[in-house]
Amino acid sequence: MTRQRILLVEDEGDIRHFIRVALEREGMTVFEAANAWEARIAAASRQPQLVIMDLGLPDGDGKDVIRDLRGWSSAPVLVLSAREHEQEKVAALEAGADDYLAKPFGVPELLARVRAHLRRANLIGMGGATLSIVRFGDVQVDLATYEVSRNGAPVHLTPIEFRLLAALIRGYGKVITYRQLLLDVWGPGYSDRPHYARVYMNNLRQKLEEDPARPRHLVTELQVGYRLAGICRGEATLSAAPPVPSERGLETRYQA
Question: Span of the secretion signal (predicted)?
Answer without folding.
Answer: none
